[in-house]
Amino acid sequence: MRVMGVDPGLTRCGLSVVEGGLGRKVTALDVDVVRTPTELDLAHRLLRVADAAEHWMDTHKPEAVAIERVFAQHNVRTAMGTAQAGGVIALAAARRGIPVAFHTPSEVKAAVTGNGSADKAQVTAMVTRILGLQVAPKPADAADALALAICHCWRAPLLDRMAKAEAQAAEVRRRYTEKLAEQRKAVRG
Fold first, then answer.
1. Which of 39, 51, 68, 166 is catalytic?
2. Is 160 a catalytic residue?
3. Choosing from 7, 30, 63, 119, which is the catalytic residue?
4. Which pLDDT tens digit goes with each residue over 140-171?
5. How many Å apart are CA 115 and CA 62, to the nearest integer?
6. Which annotated residues bind Mg(2+) 2 (predicted)?
7. How many other C-beta atoms lie within 10 A of the C-beta of residue 60?
8. Is 119 annotated as a binding residue?
9. What are the backbone dihedrals phi and psi of residue 20, each rounded to the nearest 5 degrees, phi first?
10. 142, 5 in Cβ contact below 8 A?
11. Which of 40, 123, 139, 183 has the fewest Cβ atoms within 10 angstroms?
């Protein structure tokens, strides 16, 4: 499975593409950080992020896009910019029919390091080890983008099986409810 990992941000947006193989084998195909100047207005900064992400999607043809879910930051302005950057990337993926998954920072850290509260240095070290890289990806946004892609490669099969099981359970529940309604109708009738 080819996954594009995205660590969204306005100032720095990490982009990566990894290829998942058998088991937990993952290979890095590309990683970079898109930077936008703070003096640009918001709309043009978002346009630069979207343009870069679209270029990556068109070039690398990912089967899924994994984006970090913004869930809490002390600086509301930073959180808004991060969410907006993630939004334009999700929109670009949706326009191409590419499924988008959002993963929380703690899910990503737990998947990559085994510890949901790992620090950036631990995440970077594990990403470097998992991918067999000679040099740690820098800056942290690049390592985070790779971690997101790795997390999705490892979690996607489980999430898919869970979704199928939930759909199957809902179908069994629907049939059972119909059968009960028919039996009640027959008893009254």
1. 68
2. no
3. 7
4. 999 999 999 999 999 876 777 777 888 889 89
5. 27
6. 68
7. 17
8. no
9. -90, 135
10. no
11. 183
Helices (H), 22-75: 42-60
Q: Is the pLDDT of residue 72 over 70?
A: no
Q: CA quadruple 178, 183, 184, 185: dihedral positive or negative? A: positive
30 catalytically annotated:
no
Domain boundaries 2-187, CATH class: alpha beta
Domain ranges of the chain: 2-187
- Which of 51, 141, 144, 171 is catalytic? The answer is 141
| More confident of the two residues 74 and 102 | 102
- Collapsing DSSP to helix, strand or coil, 156 comes out as helix
- Is there a contact between 69 and 9 (Cβ–Cβ < 8 Å)? no
51 is in an annotated binding site: no
Q: Which residues contact 86 (CB under 8 A, 6 or more apart)?
A: 6, 8, 67, 68, 69, 70, 102
Determine the Cα–Cα distance for residues 65 and 134; give it in Å rounded to an integer: 25
Q: Is 54 annotated as a binding residue?
A: no
CA distance readout (Å), 160 to 8, 101, 156: 24, 12, 6
* pTM score: 0.84
